[in-house]
């Protein structure tokens, strides 16, 4: 595995693979999100209790899944960076932060809008909502470190260690609905008793989640490409000014 | 037809919550991607120079 990964430590070689993958995932994300939206807004049935408000689920749940997935990605890439010191891992971890902020904010925002008609309030300090808000603050902390120490190895280490420490919050978010009495409903998909929602609702949910996964891949690779090109221009500019001196 | 459209948009009286719930996250994602695309195009132009 190490030898295989070593090949992609070279940014040029990495981009050769990343650019076609980026294009394919961009196309697939548009397609899946479009089909998912059509199913979510037109073909999925209203819930027997929540009626039409259940449609917020098709944006809220995929955003929440993606924010957890993004943080897990940052956690693992930071760990790999600390073990193998490949800059590409750190670059991917850092570029995922903004995407994570967008997904987490979207999950919190759509959740608040779902809460008002179903619970009668936008926000309650229950374990699931609070732990998710903590995740949002961890993302903001990572963004602050990333932007403050742009080109320092000390900043890289601080970023990676904070990403590892923040990983403690992931199981807390997942199991908060089981460990504590919460207003937020328990898990309906990833649970021991099996899936507890109908297939008509499951299809748009999975389509949207898949679309967001492709979107994450696309935006991540786009951001990594920008960063690599920025560094290339910066270093070529430095070399040019050295030659002029 | 128009009445059906209005009824659909109102989503049983919760239209504002549902449509805002979709509009804000999707626009955030859209503008982020757009901004990154513009940044990449600008970099490509600079690279060519």
Features:
A: mainly alpha, B: 49 residues, mainly alpha
Can you describe this structure?
The complex is a heterodimer of chains A (245) and B (49). Chain A has helices spanning 2-7, 11-43, 57-84, 87-119, 127-148, 153-166, 169-179, 199-244. With 245 residues, chain A is mainly α. Chain A has one domain. In chain A, helix 5 (127-148) runs antiparallel to helix 6. The longest helix of chain A is centred in the C-terminal third of the chain and has 46 residues, at 199-244. Chain B has a domain at 19-49. In chain B, 88% of the residues lie in helices and 0% in strands. Chain B contains 2 helices and no strands. The model of chain B has no long low-confidence stretch (mean pLDDT 89). The A-B interface holds A 37, 41, 46, 51-53, 55-56, 59-60, 63, 98-99, 102, 105-106, 109-110, 113-114, 116-117, 215, 218-219, 222-223, 225-226, 229-230, 232-233 and B 11-12, 14, 17-18, 20-22, 24-26, 28-29, 32-33, 36-37, 39-40, 43-44, 46-47.
List the helices and strands and how they pair.
The complex is a heterodimer of chains A (about 240) and B (about 50).
Chain A lengths: L1 H6 L3 H33 L13 H28 L2 H33 L7 H22 L4 H14 L2 H11 L19 H46 L1
Helix pairs in contact in A: 2-8, 3-4, 3-6, 3-8, 4-5, 4-8, 5-6, 5-7
Chain B lengths: L1 H9 L4 H34 L1
